[in-house]
Amino acid sequence: MEQNVKDSKFIKQLCLLTIVIIAVSAALRHTLTVWWPAIVCFFFIISIVMYLLSERAKRKDMRKFANFYMGATVVKMMLYLTIIFVYIVNFKEDGKRFAITFLCYYLIYSIFETYKLSRKDKKSSDGNK
After folding, report:
1. Environment class of residue 27 by beta-carbon count within 10 Å: exposed (0-12), middle (13-18) or buried (19+)?
2. Which of these, 71, 32, 36, lies nearest to 54 by C-alpha position?
């Protein structure tokens, strides 16, 4: 039950972050790619899925969690670079704005995910001492 509270807290904070990103992006929409709403939704969904999978991996075996997280990060990076490359090749006129928008959102969501996961790791390791 405690895990459900942690999960719902993460999702609420992620929703708040996403609302802020949408508000700022709406104000800057003329400088962003027209695909910015889809990119925000994409990172929102990926963040939830990665968080839930990471938490499940941590509960099973903390030693395997690091391997899972690093592997998932590499797979995500390859996927993201592929998306950017394919878009740039097919839509050269919007490619630069798409790449910058995509990478900015990636950075924001990655910092948030890393902060939340590392913060939980610190709390759980302090509780085990």
Report:
1. exposed
2. 71
| Maximum Cα–Cα distance across the chain | 56
Higher pLDDT, 120 or 44: 44
Structural domain spans, the chain:
2-122
Instruction: Report pLDDT digits (tens) over 90-126.
Output: 999 999 999 999 999 999 999 999 888 777 544 444 4
**Contact predicate 14/112, CB 8 Å:** yes
Show the 3-state SS of 30-67: CCCCCCHHHHHHHHHHHHHHHHHHHHHHHHHCHHHHHH
Query: What are all long-range contacts of 110-113, with beta carbons under 8 Å and residues at least 24 apart?
Result: 112/13, 112/14, 112/17, 112/47, 113/47, 113/50, 113/51
Considering the entire predicted model, what is its pTM? 0.85
